[in-house]
Amino acid sequence: ALERTLSIIKPDGVAKNVVGAIINRFETAGLRVVGQKMMHLSKEKAEGFYAEHSERPFFGALVEFMTSGPIVVMVLEGEDAVRKNREIMGATNPQEAAAGTLRADYADTIDENAVHGSDAVESAAREIAYFFSDEEICPRTR
Ligand code: CMP
């Protein structure tokens, strides 16, 4: 089905200057960027985004990292977009990520793993609404 998913290029990806390289992977796979912005998350905004992880031992480090520098948030649209994005990203832990995936190529550790992608259509809708208003999403007409 035609889906939308949220993609984040994390502070390490921006710091490595691979924003264009990462977006190129999505475009090459047939996903379209229909919303995009760069931002520097506040502690509150990062905590809210990762609220489901608030009881996990890595939560503090995760929020610290995600607020350490600018990020790029994107809405990707396409056939099977949620699964496709996850396939392009590779496993959360870069040491387990398949060759040729974004995490294998650009991530250093499970904490600093270059990209985030929604894990399901339902979470995608929530995550997209967390960062984008309707007017900030620009469906492609051609
Ligand atoms: P992300 O998809 O952004 O969602 C939560 C993040 O927490 C995850 O990517 C990882 O970067 C980070 N993280 C750190 N430790 C773990 C862990 N043990 N399990 C899952 N995610 C972790």
UniProtKB/TrEMBL annotation:
One GO MF term: ATP binding
Enzyme class, broadest EC rank: transferase
Requisite cofactors: Mg(2+)
Positions annotated to bind ATP: 10, 58, 86, 92, 103, 113
Catalytic activity annotation: a 2'-deoxyribonucleoside 5'-diphosphate + ATP = a 2'-deoxyribonucleoside 5'-triphosphate + ADP; a ribonucleoside 5'-diphosphate + ATP = a ribonucleoside 5'-triphosphate + ADP
Pfam family, one: NDK
Active site: 116 (pros-phosphohistidine intermediate)
Keyword Transferase among record annotations: yes
E.C. no: 2.7.4.6
Cellular location(s): Cytoplasm
Methyltransferase as UniProt keyword: no
Residues that span the membrane, as ranges: none
Protein family (similarity comment): Belongs to the NDK family.
UniProt protein name: Nucleoside diphosphate kinase
Organism annotation: Aliidiomarina taiwanensis
Gene: ndk
